[in-house]
Amino acid sequence: MDLKMLSDGFVEEGKSLADFSETIKKLSQDTHVVKTTPILLKFISSCAVGTFADKAKLEGKKAFVVLKPELLDEYLGMTSFFKVGKVLLEDLGNDQLIEELDNTTQLVAIVDDEKYLIGQSAMPQLLKLLSLGGSMMVNRASLFRNLQIADAARTKVTEGKIKNLSFVVREGNCGNGKPIRKVVSVFANYFSLSNQYNLVDVCKYLTTKGATFTRYKISTEYTEVLCEFPAVEGVIPGIAIITSDTGFCSYTTMLTLRVGETYSIYKKLARKHTSEITYEDSLADVKELLAEMKTATGNITKLSNVYLPAVKDVDISTEEGSALNYEETKKALDKLVSAICDSLPAKTRKGLVRLVCDEVESDRKYSVMDLVISCLSLPEKAMSFGVDKEDITDENEDEKKEKKVHPYLLDVLRENCGKVADTCCKTLKI
Description:
- This protein is of the alpha+beta class and about 425 residues long.
- It is about 40% helix and about 20% strand.
- It has helices spanning about 15-30, 70-75, 95-105, 125-130, 135-140, 145-160, 200-210, 280-300, 320-340, 345-355, 370-375, 380-385, 395-400, 405-415, 420-430; strands at about 10-15, 30-35, 40-45, 105-110, 115-120, 165-175, 180-185, 210-220, 225-230, 235-245, 250-260, 260-270.
- The strands form 2 sheets. A 6-stranded antiparallel beta sheet has the order 1-8-9-10-11-12. It has a 6-stranded mixed beta sheet with strand order 2-6-7-5-4-3.
- It is elongated.
């Protein structure tokens, strides 16, 4: 494995199945699980050497450390009361990995005399297993924090609360024959590593069913692939798979519907990493969603030439007909958005309705499929304008664009809007 793939910030994106296959093969071959127990763990911390004032030895008085904010950084780097050892740089990696270690966790674990760099992606789960937590503990690396980790590991052993730990390790080579090992995640006994290279065969299977490999993304946190099928009435169905060796997500297979640059989720299936997820498991999920795709695209096709009953025979070239068309279309969109987003707060729904209704043109007769596509585009619209639990009716365009949409809202929209075609007929009584 290239050492760049050991970096916390490693990301590779592309559109070639061949490139994806090459990279994910390297990643899978050099990722394995090392099982250990906390009692066997040793830790070393790469905190920078600092100074610490000598204790005041004043008769009849007690010395205290003064914890003024401007002095904390100096205290956090203290090493005068600790044993300081030395490690060959070539045993830890190249300059970039060592610099990254100093800037992130500053922590190295030793198991059976082998050194393992602790990656930032492993820190949240490690702290959770040791009953240490909070964003400050995750993000604020220091000698004190790492001392707490070492002490908590020992404490958990004496209390009998943790018997085993599973380090998910990625391994590279500096070129001198010495392996460099990095812990990208930590689990208890329940974690089972699955071979991500299986994704290549799943994607190849999808191409035999008429799909095109669209894109991939590989990072320290997760791997994602997307295969898409020919468009149906302007909607592009696809199968997306996302998985993680670092606990970022379950193994998730999704049937997606894309309009332009935004996508919605029609259905998703998830498997936890509690047991090995085989190619056969992945294929079973894909086949289930391919069957669902027929239903989704079938409903989309049915709505392509259907118009709202109230305006079907209206002459929109007249002023009265144009006004009626405008009002009835807005009412239909209001009903549709309210139906698919009923789990969202009322103000958020109102903002979303406003977004889709702002696009309605009085001199255009909309088919029901046009309304469906407008709703399928809602996640992108919400991202662009930042609709999030607020009524945006009175805001100008610049204020809308400055807002940031909450990730939770985006996820809800993607899942809710996916079945808009299915619920359309019932909601609009078509």
